[in-house]
Amino acid sequence: MATDRDDIADVTPTVTLAKLYEGQGLLDKAAAVYRKLVVLEPNRTELDEALRGIERRLEGQRRQPGKSEKKTALYRLTQWQGAISGRKRCLDQGHEKKTRILVIHGQNPDMPGPRDTPSSNDVALEQTDKDIKDAAEAGGVRVDIFQSNREGELVQKICEASDTYDAVIINPGEHTRTSMAIRDALLKLEIPIIEVHLSNVFGLEPSRQKSLISDVVTAHLAGFGREGYVMAVRAAANMTLEPCGSEGSARDTIVIREKEVP
User: pTM of the entire structure?
Assistant: First the structure.
């Protein structure tokens, strides 16, 4: 712009020259001519008005973004639009699809009821499953329950969970301390996993405190009896509320267990 003004430094300023520059779109040069005229003829108000009009047009030009700026703005708007559309799809899917939780019972001698009376254990397990289903219904989630004393069947069910379920709740029972196969199967899951034990296994003798899956699950619940399953269902539902993924790792472990009683 300074160069334009230098070009007219030795030119005699006239209204005709200013209008000529204006007609050619050389507004900066036109403004420079009008400024000289205003100094030379301060009493001519029409020169002030013409100068202000040219300056307003120049200011408008400076505010308009260039082609590169327009492209950048358009790109950012497109990115935002895509992100918003994706978020909406995720939310819509979240409303349409209920969270599915798989509850797995392994071989569990800690189930309430005398061990030598299978019928009592069956009744206890049936009541536990009812509590689980009631908690799922109250939380607006869907739950499937699977029980087996066979390690291979438990492993197969865990492997099937990755494509079907949003979270897994598992009490491996006696397999907790012995099954590397169950551990390996759980390691392959990319969904929240909650380990549940009816009794406070952390208060048992050292040989029974060991859990081969404790470092691969998302959270633990121990010592709450049947209520532990209800708590696990609620926790699993909360863990899967956030659609399209969430920040943080599914392996960030939270340990919840019964307070030690002296």
Answer: 0.54
